[in-house]
Write a structure and sequence with these properties.
Layout (H helix, E strand, L loop, with lengths): L4 H26 L10 H7 L6 H17 L3 H24 L4 H4 L1 H15 L28
Helix pairs in contact: 1-3, 3-4, 4-6
């Protein structure tokens, strides 16, 4: 097996592991009762100063990000990691403002660093690449094609 395959497989495993963590996090945001991590998120969000329904918004963003991370395209992984970076910046800020103890809030800053590294690793060469529709590689060789109507 070529030496280049191992780093690619390792990174794929990292994407899947992170996506599974955030998919689990999204599910627990929707969960009505106690979670693995303590009281229900409906209670935690209110204690943090947010409306209870905000957990659904955050859970949805985490779930969408998890899906984007496992799609093997640089653009989708960049968008997923960037979305997570924004959500996690809010989480870290919330933990700091509420003076949460480090033993309860270490995951948010750790995941923030990981999301930023993934976003940087998948940084688009050109910002317009994020807005372009996916095109087949043969159509992007620089040769103009006739327009079909």
């Amino acid at each position: 097996m070529p030496a280049r395959v191992w780093p690619r497989r390792l990174m794929t495993a990292v994407y899947w592991f992170l996506a599974l963590q955030f998919a689990l996090g999204a599910i627990t945001k929707y969960w009505p009762g106690e979670t693995f991590f303590g009281p229900p998120y409906s209670v935690q969000f209110v204690e943090w100063g947010y409306p209870s329904w905000m957990r659904f918004v955050i859970g949805t963003l985490e779930g969408v990000s998890a899906v984007l991370l496992v799609i093997p395209r640089r653009r989708t992984r960049f968008l997923g990691a960037t979305m997570l970076a924004f959500v996690l910046t809010g989480a870290v800020t919330t933990h700091i403002i509420n003076h949460d103890v480090l033993s309860e809030s270490w995951a948010a800053p750790t995941h923030l660093v990981i999301a930023c590294v993934i976003a940087l690793a998948n940084w688009p060469a050109d910002w317009r690449d994020l807005l372009r529709a996916a095109t087949p590689r043969a159509a992007t060789d620089g040769v103009p094609r006739p327009v079909r109507r």
